[in-house]
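TL;DR need structure tokens for one chain.
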Amino acid sequence: MSSNSLRVIARSLRIKFDRLRAISTYKYMFSGNVDGLTFSKESGKPHVLFVTSNGAGMGHITRCLAIASSGRAAFQSSFVTLSTSAEVIGKQGFEYLHFASSGTTGQPARIWNNNFYHFFNQLMRRNKFDAVVFDGTWIYRGLRDVLDNYPDVKFIWLRRGLWKKSASVEQLPEMEAYCTKILTPWDIGQHLDHGALSRVNTQTPVRGIVLSERALLSREVALEELELDPSKHYALIQLGAGNINDISDTRKKVIEAIQKLSNGLVIPVIASSPLSGQTQSEFSLKTIRKYPISPYLLAFDFVVSAAGYNSIHELIRWSIRSLVIPNLDASTDDQKARAYALQDGEKHFTALTDAEIESGISALLIKNFEVSEYQSSDTVYSKFIDSGDNAAQVISETVGL
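>> reply
TL;DR here they are.
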């Protein structure tokens, strides 16, 4: 027997062994607010299962929650997520299951995918889903293997665009073959997109997605709910959960610049991500932990933000003055392009250096700041954003095909 034949047999035996082992281990890897693996079923409505990866931020969950909320009248939504902030889904009124990710468990991808395969296969057997919507960069092998068993279920890939040039697209054709439809939400940076997806034309564009089920609170109400003194002025600092790289040095520079340039008249407030283990500010400043945070934005004179998809489009949707500091270490997301697309020199500024942090904050601190409605990028671009309505409509139409 040739060495190649032996390797094939060994690989086959290993796969069988891994699958057998996964049958017993996957049962300890999930939890949620449903009984076992069975979701409730509303009569007369298609059932859509949203599956989200465990990204560095809240983008995957937030986009899917926006669509699910907007689509309540058309379809029932349930969730499977790998994110450790899974409980926010339940707080928004949806049933969910959290499945521990490869990173959380420390399992090699090969082992984890086999566990996820058995989990997801049992889930599909016990529930009648009309569509599965996946929001993530790569469709997991364990998920794809299960989809092979359910060819009648519509599979929709909600795939954010604006990938970096360095991102690999070699596996895209294989993954796209599973898709009934690929939805890509509008992105303010898409006209600056020269990255890995810029020449891929398999997606269906939909309007930008912002979770906004709760109305924007007035400044007075927002300050009251956040327990902030209404006689003072505040700036919100939301630079992410720090899961990609260490943001503490940048955050410190921003805090010091605000305090120095405002002579202490503007108070920095730290936004703590649900994904962050941080419970209080290391700078002895007010820390708020709200999800979603967008209803409270009018409490602040301006926001210093990372350039993630959700954060930027919330600033546009609600016309909030900002200094944007893109995280250049994001693996696929071209935050730099998105930040520069938002910058208008009037209401929104971008900083890549310490000097630009100071100059941007200085501009935002100018008293009696006035912005021409015509010049503001918010006015130009807000019409391309909704609360997930367009995406929900396309999903509903796809389910009905």
